[in-house]
């Protein structure tokens, strides 16, 4: 094997490697991986993952048929602090909506209807329960009151 072939193969392996985090960030990444698997099985076509702007972050941007979907992933280890979907507060919805506006301005996708979905993951026992909530909320969310 020549040096050139060796370096090329090494670079291919390096590109395939996904970075995994430790702690809570690693749990969130694992939940996003699980959500991606379920979204693809449900017929979604993933366009972007972890789209970040100054105003907010969107876990997944995908197409469900002709509908452009902005998807938030929420997970819990148990129902003790409420169900995962309940954690998408009005403030979080506002940030997702503003990030979606930024995406639409930046990418200018073909005209399509938009929808905001939430993937809820509840880990109780050995197998997590995954629910895809289509149309979980609508925007624009009312601005928060300033004091």
What does this entry look like structurally?
With 147 residues, this protein is α+β, with helices and mostly antiparallel strands. The chain has one domain: Trna Endonuclease, Chain: A, domain 1. It has 3 helices and 5 strands. Strands 1-2-3-4-5 form a 5-stranded mixed sheet, sandwiched between helices. A hairpin with a 6-residue loop joins strand 4 (114-122) and strand 5 (129-137). It is globular and about 65 Å long.
Task: Set out the fold topology.
Blueprint: H1 3-16, H2 23-41, E1 45-52, E2 57-64, E3 67-76, H3 90-107, E4 114-122, E5 129-137
Parallel strand pairs: 3-4
Antiparallel strand pairs: 1-2, 2-3, 4-5
In short:
The protein has helices at residues 3-16, 23-41, 90-107, and strands at residues 45-52, 57-64, 67-76, 114-122, 129-137. The chain has 147 residues and is α+β, with helices and mostly antiparallel strands.
Q: Which structural traits does this protein have?
A:
147 residues, alpha+beta, Trna Endonuclease, Chain: A, domain 1, five-stranded mixed sheet, 5 strands, globular
Taking pLDDT < 50 over at least 5 consecutive residues as the criterion, the unreliable ranges are none
How much of the residues is beta strand, in percent? 25-35%
The total number of structural domains is 1
What is the CA–CA distance across the termini?
Answer: 69 Å
General form: globular
CATH topology tier name:
Trna Endonuclease, Chain: A, domain 1
Q: Give the spatial strand order of the biggest sheet.
A: 1-2-3-4-5
Biggest sheet character: 5 strands, mixed
DSSP strand count = 5
Quaternary structure of the protein: single chain
